[in-house]
Amino acid sequence: MSQHFQLKKEVSIAVLTVSDTRTETTDKGGALVRKLAAEAGFTVKESAIVADDLSAIQEQVSRWLSREDVDAIITTGGTGIAKRDVTLEAVRPLYEKEIDGFGELFRYLSFTEDVGTRALLSRASAGVVGEKVIFALPGSTGAVKLAMNKLISLELEHIVYEITKHRME
Fold it and tell me: How many helices and strands (H and E) does the chain possess?
């Protein structure tokens, strides 16, 4: 969490794996998001796997956006540049505000700590929809670990506070 910030409520997430090939058994990226989220003190309310299909992604994300008990949605997979990678095309139109710094920092950290110049192929992204935040991560476990440990786990409580603080004013 932010060094000088602590939200006074439980933060709940939903985890979406986007893949044409992953199953409950082989979904290492989604499983790692759930594990790292729990270790960070977040509650995983639900998870799902959908195909690399724009409508399927939007339908699942929209279901979670309508739930009062979900503060954040973390997707994994479908953020590359291949023809089938449509996660961003599915979630970006939903964003009311894009959190540009998330993608920028993710690519910077990927470049400096992990994959070098291949980081430029990542379209990792985050955005606000109403009082919820969506993070779109690559599907690799290395990318999930980096995003969760270096960015999301440290700032999610702060983000949730910022997008819901109007209720407290």
Answer: 6, 6
Contacts of 91 (CB under 8 A, 6+ apart): 57, 58, 61, 75, 125, 127, 134, 136
CATH C-level class of 12-167? alpha beta
**Res 31 pLDDT > 50:** yes
Domain ranges for the chain, please list them: 12-167
pLDDT at 7 (0 to 100): 61
Q: Residue range 61-76: average pLDDT?
A: 98
Which helix (H) or strand (E) element contains residue 33? helix 28-39
